[in-house]
Amino acid sequence: MKVKAMLVDDEIHIVRNLEKIIPWESLGIEIIATAGNGGKALELAEELKPDLILSDIRMPVMDGIELLKQLRGAGYGGEILMLTGFQEFDYARSAVKYGAREYILKPIDYEELENILQSLAAEIQSVKVSRMKDMAKWRELSELAYEKILLDLLMDYTSFPLHRLQEEEDRVWLHQRYWMLLVDLDDYSQMIRQDERERKLVHFAVRNVLQEALRSEFVEYAVLLTREGEWCLLIPLPQAGREPAAPLEVWSEEVQEAVRRYVKLSVSVGVYPSPVSAEGLADAYKKLQRSLQLALEKQAIVLHREVQEADPQGQSFWSLADRLVAGLTQGESPKVDAALEELGRLLKEHGMRAEQMLHFLNLHLLREMWAIGLLDSLQEQRVMGELERSMSIKELMDCVLLLVRECMQTGQARRKSPEVLMATAREYIQKGLSRDLGLEELAQHLGISNSYFSLLFKQQHGETFLEYVTRERMELAKSLLLTSDKSVTQIGKLAGYAERRYFTKVFHKYEGMTPSEFRDRGKPGNGEREKEEAYDGAQ
What we know:
The protein is of the alpha/beta class. Helix content is 57%, strand content 12%.
């Protein structure tokens, strides 16, 4: 990676000598511009953003000292070398406060200048490499956070507006629309017979294939594991209202072929026919899941149609399924009994569709209960064995009842009340605010699955785990800013932010001011003591 440099001098022969005598290429430096005065150099620097500027002091229009002053005033952070005559050296030294790196006396000692440039170029390159690594790490973390937010929206674990804590440039995704494909493993019963390690390998392999299946069509898209054997692809629209470059069914076929070729598995794909906003993801996902799960054939491509939602019996069935899942999840027998009673009434109304709907209900409950940890592998296999032998409505209904009994018995043995779980969670969060605290760690501490924890936390607190933790950290930081003499950096660390710059950024988005400004407003006369922190808002 080359260092970009600009030469500034009104004496053209000096510029030409510098270009010819200094071995810029071997030093890893590229001359991207030259200028005959400070005014022109200022324009070029704003446009080209060189890493290094080598400038004369005495020039017409704008001299080197004024150029340096204005560059720093505009936020230029590169390195600047000043060329000066012996008689101008005292004047040149007045620019120290503007951060000139070196002063080169004329006539120029080119060997000395080359050594200075070699050392400076190596330093600049080192900083750029470090910055690129930091940016790559930040991008990776941002992508993970982006996918986590999308998954929360998809599963309806989070609420709007989330933009309160987002950077302006990162808010675009809130207004983004997506094409949605839902990929479902056809032979889910085969997965049940595998141990947990094998199941994880299947999910890992399929996700990797899905991440590359449409790469020739799109630069980036999200692949989210929504539950066992099910993945959702969210493809951002490059322009609002733009039609897809290929029919959605073609993308679905490409996905099916990729999974079949590389993982040797068969999948069906549900297609949502129109772009979905971020706020509409949860609703679209549920609709697409329902359309796909009622498909009878394998390797299906199912286009969701809104006319399906006009079926009042179908709507009642889905509402019942949701209530049955909620009752089992929360361990509330009255809810479960009421849902089962209503199921009996619906079956009489559905006639020939009853077998299909009961078969789906069994699979749906199996996947949901496994996800939240209410079924172990042996229980899951026992229920699945019964389901495979069940053909009639009575046998399928007996399978539902078996599954319900297994879940309720497991829940009574393992389940703590939601109130007790959340009280334990709040206590754990308060003790862990000063360190990196993740949802997975807390779910493991409580002995429940990540998905159940997310769902329960949202139900109990009306906000996501991340939103809650951020709010608690900000409240702790505000209290410490007003009641302690600790520095902003120290307070940031106590609130769980290792980097002061990131802490300042989050705090500013949350409160509309920097930590130092908050402290100054809350404690009059405190501004002098915080002078060393005053630059935090500029970071």
